[in-house]
Each structure stands twice: as structure tokens, then as C-alpha cells.
Amino acid sequence: MSDVLPSCPQCSSPYTYEMGALLVCPECAHEWTAEAETVEEPQETVIKDSVGNVLADGDTVSVVKDLKVKGQAQSIKVGTKVRNIRLVDPIDGHDISCKVDGFGPMHLKSSVVKKV
């Protein structure tokens, strides 16, 4: 047997054994699969603006093209500054949550803003 079984992830006992597809700890009765050991931590995504600058929470950005807003007669004009942005998990490609003066809270795509 050249296989070295991993220690128990709960109690760190070195006395683990295989039972079919599972690994079992005789001391705490914890059962787990070998694949569970190789689970990688999720990597943090980097969000960049339209010119490649890395964005962070609290940054100030400006809009690089006119944006039509649903339900509004007017649009957000080029050069409009948006302060104190918040990066969120993408919702239909919109990865910035912010408040735009005159329009209120909304989500924007990072591809239509530029870091100031």
C-alpha cells in the first residue's frame, strides 16, 4: 500500500481508513469523500473599468457613454461622476451598485465607467 490516507479533517486523527468511496475516521466517526479534500477556495474576481484600471469599493468613476435608463425620459450623460461605488456579484453583467445623482440607486456595468 503506497497510498497515504489523509488525516481526519474534523479531529486530525491519522487512523483513517477507506470504506468504498468514503474515507472514515474511527475516532470521531466522520465520513467524507476524497474529492472533498481537493476542493479549492474560490478565487476573488478582479473587476476592471473600460480602460483596464482595477476598481475597488468606494471608488469614484465617470460614465464613458450615454446610458438610457428604463422608465426614464432622460439618460445618464457622458462624464457623469458616480461616487462611492460598491462592487457586487454580477447580475446580468451589472457588477457595480451605486447611486447616480438625479436617478437614484442602480446597477452599472464596469465596461461603461472609467476610474477618476
UniProtKB/TrEMBL annotation:
Record domain Protein YjdM C-terminal: where: 47-116
SUPFAM superfamilies assigned: Prokaryotic SH3-related domain, Zinc beta-ribbon
Gene3D superfamilies: 2.20.25.10, SH3 Domains
Domain Protein YjdM N-terminal: start-end pairs: 5-33
Top-level taxon: Bacteria
Matches recorded under PANTHER family: PROTEIN YJDM (PTHR30305:SF3), PROTEIN YJDM-RELATED (PTHR30305)
Family: Belongs to the YjdM family.
Protein name: Protein PhnA
Source organism of this protein record: Paeniglutamicibacter psychrophenolicus
Taxonomic path: Bacteria, Bacillati, Actinomycetota, Actinomycetes, Micrococcales
